Amino acid sequence: MESPDYDAIVIGGGPAGCGYALTLARRGYQVLLLEKVAFPRFHIGESFLPYTTEILEQMGLLDAVMAKPYAFKPGVELTGIGGAVRRIDFGEIGDGRRPWAIQVERAEFDKTLLDAATVEPGVTVLEEAVVTDVDIVDGRAEGVSYTHNDENHHVSARYIVDASGRAGVLVKKLNLRVSDSRLKMAAVFKHFGNLDESMNPGVEGDTQLGVHEDGWLWGIPLKSDVISIGAVARMSILQSDRPEKVFDEHLARIPRIVDRLRGTTVVRELKGERNFEYHTDTLAGPGYFVIGDAGSFTDPVFSGGVLLALATARKAAEMTADTLDGLKKETEAIDLYSAFFKTGYETYYRLICAVYDDRQPVMGQVILDMSADLDPKYHVRLVSGDFWTGDNPLVNRLRAEKNWNLFAPFDLLEECPIYPPSPAA
């Protein structure tokens, strides 16, 4: 291709799109980022993992994020069907790894990242720019058509990056998406204001997960005085009655979350979120990469979405730059990136399958049984984002389960992007 307009065009301005644009621009390349709506905009996915906080630090974004009054997250409280309470303390992660995370309001958080991309030299950001088509010439992605300010535009690039999440602009153009139906879960949720954490029967800042016979509840503090409460259940249950009634009935089953809500008022009325399980086995090809939710999406129970988005975005940008720098052949970069994406997402998926496994009567008991004889740090690390590891025995047990595959068979890339082994290891 002669004289492309940009080195890369990114479709989507969420965490994945911003992470890719920032990483590639810092390697000296020119990026056009096209986002279809104006930020800020509401988005679910407020609860982060310690590894998410660490990658934000590594990408130079944490200070800007922490300038907002987000909630500190020191751990997760799990309440079982019988009322038994167990706490996962991030402080037990060990070996000097970050022992805390944060909870955010995604509208503000996503805008913080987009603002960082906007001021980054080498990145051009256009909001309310809707991609209408992607050029595929002899199997290679080479450009996009988009509308902006009621005008039609066409631009070319050496690489096209699909960071468009569920929209999957490039993925759908290439007919790559596969629908999954293992879990079939959905959620309804509200936000409550006037939160007083002195009412919390557990540890201030913790995410609460409460399990009952028909699903589970989340309690995610977003700020010191605002909390998100969600009810997750099979779609068939939520479709069988009024969502508001299901929400109220399921919330009443977890008294510890009810206690935390004493004195609060609703500040965001009931909204719903379907599961939309899907994946694609082709994550990269001639002239393109697929990153974040555009490549795979599943149940949000362990809050891994933003970590996976940022990690795959950074890896894809590194592979792009290495190819453009002549350090790697494109085929090598495609293979490495694809293995990286699949290793992280499938490990996360296997964790979710373990949580919902019905071989035990209590949801989540299977994962507890798997880790019963292990140092607690391995369980803490897994639920903190340790999805690419090769030395966590709990992760290895998950990977040994034959029925929890997400992708077609592939070779693992056990290369942690957050805590790589030390040179002496």
Keywords summarizing the entry:
425 residues, alpha+beta, FAD/NAD(P)-binding domain, D-Amino Acid Oxidase, Chain A, domain 2, eight-stranded mixed sheet, 20 strands, globular
Write structural notes for this entry.
The chain has 425 residues and is α+β, with helices and mostly antiparallel strands. The chain folds into 2 domains: 1-68 and 104-180 and 277-418, FAD/NAD(P)-binding domain, CATH 3.50.50.60; 185-274, D-Amino Acid Oxidase, Chain A, domain 2 (2-Layer Sandwich), CATH 3.30.9. The protein has helices at 15-25, 50-58, 62-66, 106-119, 169-173, 235-240, 243-251, 255-260, 305-324, 330-356, 365-370, 376-384, 393-399, and strands at residues 6-11, 31-35, 71-73, 75-79, 85-89, 101-103, 123-127, 129-137, 140-148, 151-162, 178-179, 185-193, 207-212, 215-223, 226-234, 265-274, 278-279, 284-285, 288-290, 296-297. The strands form 4 sheets. Strands 1, 2, 7, 8, 9, 10, 18 and 19 form an 8-stranded mixed beta sheet that branches. A 7-stranded mixed beta sheet has the order 5-4-13-14-15-12-16. A 3-stranded antiparallel beta sheet has the order 11-17-20, with no helix packed on it. Strand 13 (207-212) and strand 14 (215-223) form a beta hairpin. The model has no long low-confidence stretch (mean pLDDT 92).
Tell me briefly what this model is.
With 425 residues, the chain is an alpha+beta fold. 32% of the residues lie in helices and 27% in strands. Helix 1 runs parallel beside helix 9 and helix 2 (50-58) packs parallel to helix 9.
